[in-house]
Amino acid sequence: MVGFYELQLILLVSSCLIFLFLERHVSRRKELKEKDLHAAERLENGEPTASHNSLATLTRQYLIVYAIVMGADWLQGPYVYSLYREQYGLSERMVAILFVTGFMSAGLTAPLMGVWADQHGRKKLCLAFCLTYTFTCCCITIPYLPILLLGRVCGGISTSILYSAFESWLVSSAGALALPSTDLSTIFGRATLVNGFVATGAGVASNQLVTLTNSFTSPFVASGVLLLLAYLVIRASWGENFGGGGTTPGKDLFQLKRLGQAWRIVKDDPMLLVIGLTQTCFEGSMYLFVFLWVPSLQEASPTFPTIALPLGYIFSSFMISMMLGSLLYSVVTTQSGGLTVHAKLSSLVCAFAALALAISVRSESERVRFWAFCAFEACVGMYYPVQGMLRGTLISNEHRATLSSLFRVPLNVFVVVSLMTGVSSARNAVLSASSLMLAFSALMTAFVVVARADDHVSPETSLRPE
């Protein structure tokens, strides 16, 4: 069976290289046309022609850091469950409790992390992420339950920062440079593509590290080293930016007034409510998938536990699938990348993700489940740039990190409730529920966001100041 997964990985890599070549060919033609057009417009308006250089600099600054931090995160992906369950000998119920601890920590701290990022600086929070996630890697290597729980708490805090402050820093920096929304879309697409490459390499590297050291802890040690490297790069190359209010410290440590303002903004805008719903349904399903894919494939494998599944290679296959999804996004948005297109893509991505999970539930074949999971990961590859563009267009800079983090509260509640209901005894039920939630999200996006997209006026029109 190892030969099967190695063959699928080779096929997926070959497909990805072909699609990458085609995507670069199409994108290069578009970039040449746009470069000439923008240069002519700037000369006509008397503007400097440094936008292309600014885009290249910002892209390089962001993608280098993004590749390092996501590499550190993905190194841990294939073996979190196996480390707890197989090396440390914890029961599946206790493993679920550890996962729940992380999600509860993320849910409780997400709003504060977003507010503090807007208030005190996104760069500072990104630097804090590197330190807290390094501490998490140290804790997970110690097989003592209180230390493992402490590590999950710090991991939850780190996750809240990772999925709010980094994106907010990028969007705000793009706005400060007066880059058009098409350039921001390009950066998001490339970030997802880089993420796929890094995750694929991380899956293979983690598999090799475990083979060489005969320990599931080695990928976590390597992850800690990468995080320290990311700290140095961020400190040396990034500038600071803030949300509304700048560096004003204020007396409200927990920023309840600011959180109240953010909640009123969401409550009064149906489009933002649906964006939050989509984030809850999709990312909730994705995090549950992280917990479920290993036991689900093991359950369907006729040779397990006699022959262990090559989890690193399977994980790399998932990441290549994610890259294929990001390439498809780049191709689709090459000709048109407006709000309406992204809203339609968001609805379609949720619909196809729901279908993929439904197929994995209906089939008892290991190979069908594997390919269904690959299809789900391809949807993940499209989801991140689509959702990033929707948030960047619909949310003003003043509350960007705050609202992005606020959306994570129901997300983590959804995951915690699902895990505490007994995932080990009801894997199919949890996947079925995730499929239904995604289908509902697809319909709501179609009826609300797509329907209102043409009439929407961005809070920062195309990220370009008047």
Automatic annotation (TrEMBL):
One of its GO terms (biological process) is monoatomic ion transport. It is a multi-pass membrane protein. Signal peptide: none annotated. It comes from Suillus subaureus. This is Molybdate-anion transporter. It is found in: Cell membrane. Pfam families: MFS_5. CDD domains: MFS_MFSD5_like. It comes from the Eukaryota. Mediates high-affinity intracellular uptake of the rare oligo-element molybdenum. Keywords: Cell membrane, Ion transport, Membrane, Transmembrane, Transmembrane helix, Transport. InterPro entries: MFS_trans_sf (IPR036259), MOT2/MFSD5 (IPR008509). One of its GO terms (cellular component) is plasma membrane. GO terms for molecular function: molybdate ion transmembrane transporter activity.
